[in-house]
Amino acid sequence: MTEQQLAWLRKFVEMPGPSGYEESVQKQWIESLPQEALTISQDVHGNVAARYRGTDSRFTVLLGGHADEIALVVHYISDDGMLYCKSIGGVDPAVLPAQPVRILTANGVVHGVIGAPAVHLLSEEERGKARKLHELWIDIGATDKAMAEQLVQPGDPVIVGGDFLPLAGNRAAARCFDNRVGIFIVSQILNQLVEQQISLPFDVVGLSTVQEETSMTGIKTAGFALNPDVGIIYDVMVATDFPGVDQKKFGVIKVGAGVGIARGVRTDRRLADLLIQLAKEAGIPYQVEIERGWSSTDADPLTDTRGGVATTILSVATRYLHTSWEVLDLQDVEATIQLTLVLLQSPQFVEYLHQIGQQRHAQDTNSAT
Q1: Which run of H or of E encompasses 271?
Q2: Does a structural domain hold residue 168?
Q3: What is the CB-side half-sphere exposure of residue 269 using CA atoms within 13 A?
């Protein structure tokens, strides 16, 4: 990964963007693109699409990731000035106590910490016991409710966790690789298509969606509007290569073992098998992620769009998902970009896409009559 690419990835993960509050991330994503060579649009929900024109615009391939991250949202301020929150997305309360937070207010960022009783105040039974979310509070230093309300209002989102942190080798940690790494991959693919002036017999639409972590509203509306023939969704997948994980139960997914290719029920098996074939031929490391009919990614609603979209998922193995520090390997990110570029330029994929596209267009014609 080049220094410029790494700088953009850092920018993406360091920009706060909870589900429903993605505006700053989307602006940054647009800035990362070669805008003069793309047709860029933004819809009413905040999804951003960037179209790279091919020689035959009857066919469209969608490359999508989601811009939002999990977070908290202030919903109650107590008389003593403490803030209580609800979750935005799948937040585990067990990882929250004693964490620093950033509250995004109309007047800027307010810093605070999630309170945790000193061990001296806990009984033997209470020590090590996970608390429920409504039992946790944020301390911003306010001495009473009136002071807190001058700084924070109910409905303000709360960011928990840290920014980009380089680790040994090619590893790195951040609070929101899920899924800033996905929109980073899409932006880099678009950049390379433009820089290398790659001619394709179809359009490529890069998409950065909103609200994946909560409702998947973004992909539902954007997928319908864009009406792609084939969709590739980029996300993270749950790594199982750390202590305490039962691999007989959860399978083997390793950080650093290559791009994850979804294979299973809802995703298109022909596309998965082609990706595996191309990865082998190109010497790109890969691993298979089993998909059993529901992936909990933007791929799920996309498959159901209009008359159906042939969809697959390419994922980056990531440890400690939905915690304050997620860990991945940057080489897996590079492998994902590389495999996509190989796929888009392969004659087998063009043949597959045209078959899918013609079938969908015939369906549209039959429906119209």
Answers
A1: helix 269-282
A2: no
A3: 5
Nearest to 212 by CA among 24, 27, 67, 28: 67
Question: What are the pLDDT digits (tens) for 25-82?
Answer: 999 999 999 999 999 999 999 999 999 999 999 999 999 999 999 999 999 999 999 9
Per the CB < 8 A criterion, the answer to whether 338 and 282 are in contact is yes
Q: Residue 281: CB partners within 8 Å, gap ≥ 6?
A: none
d(CA 72, CA 229): 36
Domain carrying residue 210: 3-69+175-368
Of 160, 186, 202, the residue at which a domain comes to its end is 160
- Helix count (H) and strand count (E) of the chain? 10, 17
Q: What is the CA radius of gyration of the chain?
A: 22
Task: Look at the chain and report how many structural domains it folds into.
Answer: 2
Beta bridge partners of 112: 101
Per residue in 207-257, pLDDT (tens digit) is: 999 999 999 999 999 999 999 999 999 999 999 999 999 999 999 999 999
Provide the whole-model pTM. 0.96
Nearest residue to 71 (alpha-carbon basis) of 145, 146, 160, 154: 160
Residue at a domain's end among 92, 126, 160: 160
CA distance 90 to 322: 7
Q: Are residues 180 and 304 in the same domain?
A: yes
Contacts of 357 (CB under 8 A, 6+ apart): 58, 59, 202, 229, 230
Q: What is the pLDDT of residue 369?
A: 56
Pair 57, 155 in one domain: no
Residues with a catalytic annotation lie at 212
Q: The domain that contains 104 carries what CATH number?
A: 2.40.30.40
- Residue 365: pLDDT over 70: no
